[in-house]
Amino acid sequence: MPMLGDLLAAARESSGRFEAWLTHADPGLAGNLREAARGEGLSPTGFVRAAVADFSRLASEEDWATLISGIRDSADPGTTCLLAMVDWRLTAPRCGDHARQAGPTAGRIPQ
């Protein structure tokens, strides 16, 4: 089984292919992804990359435990990882806990 760091790196690198796969596998979720990306001024690929980065930085211990369980039980851990992170990111803006964790300067590099 690949290490988590390998899965995260693969997720970042395969985000463009992921969008095409998702459009075929789950058109509804793909539409939600495109809509959310547009709302944030990102490309769908940029949104997927942000989802991976945000999950890595902001996900709770419970979110990580759920992800690890899903990866462990999956025949395709890379896809499972990306799906979980994108789903988490799609729901995060509506959740006050995630918004408070991210704060007004989320994603900015301190000067």
Q: How would you describe the overall organization of this protein?
A:
With 111 residues, the chain is mainly alpha-helical. The protein has one domain (4-98). It is built from seven helices and no strands. It has helices at 4-13, 15-25, 27-39, 44-58, 61-72, 77-91, 96-102. Helix 1 crosses helix 6 (77-91) and helix 2 packs across helix 4 (44-58). The longest helix has 15 residues, at 44-58. It starts with a helix and ends in a 9-residue tail after the last helix.
Mean of all residue-level pLDDT scores:
77
How far apart are the termini? 39 Å
Count structural domains. 1
Secondary structure: helix percent: over 70%
Strand percentage lies at under 5%
Q: Roughly how many Å is the radius of gyration?
A: 14 Å
How would you sum up the global shape? globular
Write the element-wise H/E pattern from the N-terminal end onward. HHHHHHH
Which structural class best describes the helix and strand composition?
Answer: mainly alpha
- Low-confidence parts lasting 5 or more residues at pLDDT below 50? 102-111
Number of strands: 0
- Count of helical regions: 7
* Biggest sheet character: none
